[in-house]
Q: What sequence folds into this?
């Protein structure tokens, strides 16, 4: 692997700039001593100029110090006893070598991270995150261990342990980085690690992986890497599936919120127009300046008010998800028709599994940007994976997934498979239990439920298909 870009040209350029800066600073000091004497060194202008130059010089020296590390080559050897990480010595970079024994490794996560490369932002590159149980001495700079907060950890049990630890952080070594060369090296390294210790890769639903160890997913669960739990405290199959009337999980905007936004923009427009009419009798100059300032809120409130009124029928259209004993139905708005909706029925016979997970935002370079979602995996290359669910109005996406992105998903789903992903915020255990209780009693079962009840509805009607849900005790 190579730690980064840059090279001899950059080092030579920086060295030339440092030499010119030092030479200029020395020449100026000698010239001031000869012409003005020692007192010139304490003048305000001289001190400010020299401090500024010294600050720039320190920055250049630091950049020059980092140049060899950006060109350092380092290798990772996968051995039966652990990982040998060797960083070569280059110029004034000392290099180093360290051995990471397998007993010091908690989990190895094959994830993707966003980088900024040139003028491209959010370029996804595969990396190998090695989470350690303890400090490993002698790690070279290219693979130094860092302590990261739980919100930047993609493996559930590691994040939980980090939250419970003394400093609230997890110890991580990241192998890989920006650039195509690093990606190529990581993709070659990961199967080697898997061939020696496949059990170290996470097997839960939450960690989305670009690499999953190969195994027979129809084999018993004991044959599956089990470094991480599935996130299910109980077996959903223990519940008795509900029958009877379906539940409509409402995803539309509430009328109060929609009318509140309209009232807010109307108030901004009316207030700005009133102040622009100079009700206080100010002078011409002051009134003119105020009118110029108020042009911005008047313009934006006019546009926002017009858009809110135009989209009012669409914002209040009855969109949502209907869950029943026969299947799932997605009700979305028809495009270019104010309140008309289109319904897409998905019978349970077409569903392989329903998984509650956390999804990464692929558009950001943040180390870990998470969104709570529910993935509905359909059987085979279902047409919904190609064409999607018609209409708009639900945070719902469709895709054809060619391979599993975690060991747990590989156990549950035959690939390739169509995947429907809908945003569904997680709920607390007590709230989920109360929602399930309301659904169990058909006399209390609501015909229309808020969007926070989607998990409870899916788990109530088909507990055998649901995975990764926080499961209350069987009814």
A:
């Amino acid at each position: 692997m190579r730690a980064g870009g840059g090279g001899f040209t950059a080092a030579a350029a920086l060295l030339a700039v440092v030499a010119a800066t030092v030479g200029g600073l020395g020449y100026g000091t000698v010239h001031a001593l000869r012409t003005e004497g020692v007192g010139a060194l304490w003048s305000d202008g001289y001190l400010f100029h020299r401090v500024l130059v010294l600050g720039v010089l320190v920055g250049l020296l630091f950049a020059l110090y980092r140049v060899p590390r950006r060109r350092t080559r380092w290798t990772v050897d996968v051995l039966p006893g652990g990982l040998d990480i060797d960083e070569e010595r280059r110029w004034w970079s000392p290099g180093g070598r360290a051995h990471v024994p397998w007993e010091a490794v908690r989990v190895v996560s094959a994830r993707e991270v966003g980088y900024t490369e040139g003028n491209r932002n959010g370029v996804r590159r595969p990396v190998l995150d090695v989470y350690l149980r303890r400090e490993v001495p002698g790690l070279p700079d290219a693979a130094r261990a860092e302590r990261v907060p739980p919100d930047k950890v993609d493996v559930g049990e590691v994040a939980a342990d980090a939250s419970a630890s003394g400093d609230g952080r997890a110890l991580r070594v990241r192998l890989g980085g920006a650039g195509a060369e690093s990606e190529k090296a990581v993709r070659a390294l990961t199967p080697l690690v898997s061939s020696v210790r496949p059990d170290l890769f996470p097997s839960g639903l939450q960690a989305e992986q670009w690499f999953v160890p190969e195994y027979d997913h129809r084999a018993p669960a004991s044959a599956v890497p089990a470094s991480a739990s599935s996130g299910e405290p109980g077996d959903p199959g223990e519940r008795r599936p509900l029958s009877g009337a379906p539940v409509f999980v409402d995803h539309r905007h509430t009328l109060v919120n929609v009318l509140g936004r309209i009232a807010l923009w109307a108030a901004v427009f009316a207030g700005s127009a009133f102040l622009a009419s100079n009700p206080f009798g100010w002078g011409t100059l002051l009134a003119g300046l105020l009118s110029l300032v108020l042009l911005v809120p008047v313009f934006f409130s006019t546009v926002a008010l017009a858009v809110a009124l135009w989209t009012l029928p669409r914002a209040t259209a009855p969109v949502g998800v209907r869950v029943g004993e026969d299947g799932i139905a997605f009700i979305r708005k028809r495009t270019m028709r104010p309140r008309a909706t289109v319904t897409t029925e998905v019978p349970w016979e077409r569903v392989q599994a329903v998984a509650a997970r956390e999804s990464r935002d692929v558009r950001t370079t943040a180390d870990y940007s998470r969104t709570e979602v529910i993935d509905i995996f359909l059987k085979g290359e279902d047409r919904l994976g190609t064409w999607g669910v018609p209409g708009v109005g639900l945070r719902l996406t469709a895709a054809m997934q060619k391979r599993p992105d975690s060991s747990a998903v590989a156990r549950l789903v035959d690939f390739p498979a169509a995947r429907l992903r809908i945003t569904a915020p997680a709920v607390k255990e007590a709230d989920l239990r109360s929602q399930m209780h309301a659904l169990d009693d058909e006399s209390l079962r609501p015909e229309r439920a808020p969007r926070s009840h989607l998990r409870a509805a899916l788990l109530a009607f088909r507990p055998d298909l649901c995975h990764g849900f926080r499961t209350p005790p069987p009814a």
